[in-house]
Amino acid sequence: MTEQAWLPQGVDAHRPTDARVHDYALGGKDNYAIDRAYAHKLASLLPGSGRPIVENARFVRRAVRHLRALGVRQFLEIGSGLPRRGNVHEVAGPDATVVYVDYDPVAVSHFQAVLSANSSAAAIRGDATKPGTILADPVVTGMIDFDRPVALMMTYMLQLVSDADDPRRIVGEFREPLAAGSHLVLSHATLEMLSPAEIEAAGLAFEELREPVTLRGRAQVTELFDGFELLDPGVVAAPEWRPDRPYRDPTGWVLAGVGRKP
Ligand SMILES: C[S@@+](CC[C@H](N)C(=O)[O-])C[C@H]1O[C@@H](n2cnc3c(N)ncnc32)[C@H](O)[C@@H]1O
């Protein structure tokens, strides 16, 4: 049977999707031929283009461990992608509550399968550009207590949200109901630190993705933390955010930071 023959409703296998390309880069199996071909093309245009995905995944694990140490036990991940090694619920521990949200039906159904026997974590379909709908979802309101600190995770996903959809507005609407002591964990693709040739190659490659990519610089990413106090060391290349072991030089593709709602 071909991959096309068993696709669930709503799944587009004709264009690579970000969630499935990431899955492939992290060694997963939840991707299609079109995603693998795109990943290889990206790698030929931009050698090492799989590394930012790994840099981001490591940042997410360090940030979740840090918040766990601070006592945060509720995690709301927007744009969660496909299950991967070191999922938030695995790093956050069995006493944490985690809700994963993505608009990609493949990502959500795979998370739901992984979590079928887990009563403290769930995955729902939702569009980040409509925070009110996600915040009113019965799974979210039933599992997350907004009177206690929440970690709002928006990692490596806002580059898939255009300026027209206004990422600052989106983060602001999610921030609104959060209790003091809640945190925003955010990472974002940037080309600010790359050469003009790399930027041109990336621009060409991104045209193929189903979701348009909007790369933002450090100043724009820092603005997304409005209403949060940035933890040290601020918005930095992902590997430089509280590294816990020797690391390779950052690729310069991923900016990351964590902020606390006062
Ligand atoms: C690169 S993955 C990041 C996955 C994960 N957060 C991580 O840090 O590894 C980006 C995810 O954001 C999702 N996404 C993009 N735009 C979205 C939107 N408007 N609403 C919900 N999910 C979105 C994509 O479907 C994809 O799964």
Short description:
The chain has helices at residues 18-25, 33-45, 51-69, 88-92, 105-114, 131-135, 138-143, 167-175, 196-206, 218-223; strands at 74-78, 97-102, 121-125, 151-155, 183-189, 229-230, 236-237, 254-260.
Structural notes for this entry:
The chain is of the alpha/beta class and 262 residues long. It has one domain: 3-Layer(aba) Sandwich (Rossmann fold). It has helices at residues 18-25, 33-45, 51-69, 88-92, 105-114, 131-135, 138-143, 167-175, 196-206, 218-223, and strands spanning 74-78, 97-102, 121-125, 151-155, 183-189, 229-230, 236-237, 254-260. Strands 1, 2, 3, 4, 5, 6, 7 and 8 form an 8-stranded mixed β-sheet that branches. Helix 4 (88-92) links the parallel strand 1 and strand 2. Helix 1 (18-25) packs across helix 2. It is globular. The model is unreliable at 1-7 (pLDDT under 50). Bound molecules: S-adenosylmethionine.
The first-level CATH class is given as Alpha Beta
Give the helix/strand class. alpha/beta
The main β sheet shows up as: 8 strands, mixed
Q: What are the secondary-structure elements, in order, as H or E?
A: HHHEHEHEHHEHEHHEEE
- CATH-defined architecture: 3-Layer(aba) Sandwich
Task: Compute the average pLDDT.
Answer: 89
CATH topology value: Rossmann fold
Q: Assign the CATH superfamily.
A: Vaccinia Virus protein VP39
Helix content: 25-40%
Whole-number radius of gyration?
A: 17 Å
Count of individual helical segments: 10
How far the N terminus sits from the C terminus, by CA atoms, comes to: 54 Å
Bound molecules: S-adenosylmethionine
Number of strands: 8
Shape: globular
Low-pLDDT runs: 1-7
Number of domains: 1
Strand content: 5-15%
